[in-house]
Specification:
mainly alpha; 2 domains; two-stranded antiparallel sheet; 2 strands
Length: 381
């Protein structure tokens, strides 16, 4: 029997205490593992996410907690809190390969008990059935782009309306000129740093052939503002940060999508440009890095949709000013120890990007400048 949402006068808005976190831990483990065990990656991520988001450790050795018990724990929690917990279950479910149908059904039972409708559960069910193509459709239909409207493209500064969210715009000279004009901004401004970010990696400005879709290019600004490099591992951090900063629950699909691209490989392509490259979340320190990115996103000031932000309106401010504007907090020591790096550090650029940047510099007839970045990895201490 679903646990009804509390009366507004009875809702509990305080952060969870140690006891509630312990109960939630048991419910999440029970939903994802059933009578079995979490996989190593699932366990590491859950043990990283819960303390990062609550300040209390996960408790994974207690008695199982079924849907009804889960509902009792959540009785005074609002829909947003409940949805975040169900999304954690879904995220861990998406790490299973293959996803047993019973796993998807269990998580769905916990979601029903909590009165949560989570679109990514449909994706998990499709993946459990082996319907990878339909899962890709459900990512678009039930995820972030389900709320996309053509007028949202105004923040992208395209010269013509885009028919779909991830549509490329490779013949838009006006858009390309807007990006190129950022090169004339003073040193240290966000706009100038984004052009250095592009030149170091050989990226093409939106509006020109070979460029990323304008909507995807929005996340490049986040790399600079949130201080994340551009390896696949850093992309996981960036989209964890973006997804958690946005109170629109559809944004969770962005994190679910990159996990399906860069850990399990369920998706062959996504976000308009990315191609699958599995096995990156299971690496050393990655659970701590992703969990900290979620923490930093949650601590941003208010609800922020970084992909619908007009970055050009902020381009003339210093990077430090923009971080203060959004309330971006520093990385936690655990993320730094796990190898989290910024775009200007060793390990903050891939070998392919470094080679592309060097080739772009050669074409422009100027020395190559990576602005401190190198493909040399940082080995966690």
């Amino acid at each position: 029997m679903p646990t009804p949402l509390p009366d507004p006068t009875q809702v509990l808005l305080e952060p969870p205490d140690a006891g509630e976190v312990a109960d939630l831990s048991r419910a999440i483990r029970s939903a994802v593992a059933g009578d079995g065990e979490l996989t190593e990656t699932q366990r590491l991520l859950l043990e990283a996410v819960l303390p990062a988001m609550t300040g209390y450790p996960a408790v994974l050795d207690g008695e199982p907690l079924g849907p009804e018990g889960f509902g009792t724990v959540l009785a005074r929690r609002n829909l947003g809190f409940r949805t975040r917990i169900v999304q954690t279950m879904v995220l861990l479910a998406l790490l299973a390969r293959p996803i047993p149908p019973a796993l998807a059904d269990r998580v769905a039972a916990y979601a029903r008990e909590a009165c949560v409708e989570e679109g990514m559960l449909d994706v998990a069910r499709r993946l459990a059935d082996g319907s990878l193509g339909l899962a890709a459709v459900d990512f678009e239909r039930n995820g972030y782009t389900a709320t996309w409207h053509p007028e949202d493209a105004a923040v992208l500064h395209t010269s013509r309306q885009l028919e779909s969210a991830w549509q490329e715009s490779v013949a838009d000279p006006g858009l390309a000129r807007s990006w190129a004009a950022l090169e004339d901004l003073p040193d240290g401004t966000l706009g100038r740093r984004i052009t250095e970010f592009y030149r170091a990696r050989g990226f093409t400005y939106p509006g020109l052939p070979g460029s990323a879709p304008p909507l995807l290019a929005q996340h490049d600004w986040v790399h600079v503002v949130a201080d994340y490099g551009t390896t696949v591992e850093s992309e996981l951090e960036v989209f964890a940060f973006i997804a958690r900063a946005n109170d629109d629950m559809h944004a969770f699909s962005l994190l679910a999508m990159v996990v399906s691209l860069f850990e399990t490989g369920y998706l062959r392509s996504g976000l308009g440009l990315f191609e699958y490259s599995p096995g990156h979340l299971a690496g050393s320190g990655m659970a701590a890095r992703v969990a900290d990115a979620m923490r930093r996103g949650a601590l941003c000031r208010g609800s922020i949709d970084f992909l619908r932000t007009d970055w050009f309106a902020l381009a003339d401010r210093s990077v430090e000013e923009v971080r203060a504007h959004f309330g971006v907090v520093p990385k936690a020591p655990s993320a730094l120890a796990g190898g989290s790096v910024g775009p200007w550090e060793p390990g903050g650029i891939s070998p392919f990007q470094q080679d592309a940047g060097a080739e772009l510099a050669r074409q422009r007839g100027c020395p190559y400048d990576a602005y401190g970045a190198s493909a040399s990895p940082v080995i966690p201490g």
